[in-house]
Specification:
4-stranded antiparallel β-sheet; mainly beta; Immunoglobulin-like; 12-stranded antiparallel β-sheet; 2 domains; disordered N terminus; 3 helices
């Protein structure tokens, strides 16, 4: 079960302008069984009014309608979670779609949003082979409603966790509605997700897809869709006054595990190296980072490091970033 994060963000505050509709949601799955495939899913929906029941098209000519609990975590802001179970009678690749109500009104990058259904889908590959028969989708470490704007930069950091040890590939995907388009940015719009200097204010929606890979085989995919309000724009980098720092660390100080979140574009082919040095420059940890394997984050065990100050450096083809951490204090 995911952890519900209670966040303050622009799209939650402006519910008076958009009195109903869905503004974010995602889907997870858990597949078990060598022959018949037991599929458990969880769908989370964030909305400005309690959404209707969830309709699941399982992709094998069967459909279910389910209901789930709804919580009002801020006035006029609702979190609904749907859990259900299905048995696939055969192996193969299946795509299942979940529909619950319509998008919130007033979204700028597709028309008539209040009349467009909110649909998220997932895909999995079921095999007899014991190496591939069981799989759990990546888990999101943050909730779908998070939308952060600072100095002209919009961020939505998912920090996915992969319990099976599989590789994760991340990408921005269009919302499956007529006329959807990715909005412009003065600098960049990159997965997953950094929108550097939007050019227009308004409410915008985005889709992110996570693919799970094992031994060269695509095990499946999940989707997350979300929206939020851009309340200010910046015309140039000097006015913005922002420099992307490449990665983030938490907790700091730490006594045990150090979590590292990689920011900016998911660029396949770039060479990344992560290194940790102590205060006098001795290397304690060096690792080449393949973004196909580590996506936006990784964890380093520092519990055996002597207490003190350490420097974490990330290098790629275009530059380097260094941050200071404190261990054991």
């Amino acid at each position: 079960m995911r952890t519900l994060l209670f966040s303050t963000f622009f799209c939650a505050i402006l519910n008076t302008a958009f009195s109903q509709g869905i503004y974010a949601g995602d889907i997870l799955y858990n597949i078990r069984g060598n022959e018949d495939k037991d599929c458990t899913i969880e769908v989370a929906i964030y909305s400005y009014a309690p959404p209707p029941s969830l309709v699941v098209d399982w992709g094998d000519n069967t459909m279910d309608t389910i209901i789930g609990p709804t919580f009002e975590f801020n006035p006029g802001n609702f979190y609904s979670v749907y859990n259900t179970y299905h048995i696939y009678q055969d192996t193969g690749r299946y795509v299942f779609k979940c529909t619950s109500g319509n998008w919130v009104g007033g979204i700028a990058n597709f028309e008539d949003s209040e009349n467009q259904p909110f649909v998220v889908e997932a895909e999995f590959w079921g095999s007899y082979n014991s190496n591939f028969s069981n799989t759990i989708s990546p888990l999101f470490s943050t909730s779908a409603d998070i939308w952060l704007q600072e100095n002209g930069v919009i961020r939505h950091v998912m920090a996915p966790n992969e319990l099976d040890g599989d590789s994760i590939a991340q990408k921005l995907v269009p919302i499956p509605v007529p006329g959807y388009y990715f909005p412009e940015a003065t600098d960049t719009l990159a997965c997953c997700m950094v929108w550097d200097m939007p050019t227009m204010t308004g409410r915008y929606a985005f889709g992110i897809e996570l693919e799970e890979w094992r031994f060269g085989q695509k095990m499946g995919k999940i989707q997350r869709f979300f929206s939020g309000v851009v309340d200010s724009v910046y015309s140039n980098s000097e006015e913005k006054g922002y420099l992307d720092d490449g990665f983030a660390l938490y907790p700091n100080p730490t006594n045990n595990n150090l979590h590292i979140l990689f920011k900016g574009a998911f660029i396949i082919g770039n060479n990344y190296i992560l290194e940790i040095k102590d205060a006098i420059g001795r290397s304690r940890f060096v690792k080449p980072i393949d973004m196909m394997d580590y996506g936006m984050g990784m964890m380093v065990d520092v519990k055996d490091y002597p207490p003190g100050i350490y420097y974490v450096t990330l290098k790629n083809n275009h530059g380097s970033w260094t941050k200071k951490i404190v261990v054991g204090c």
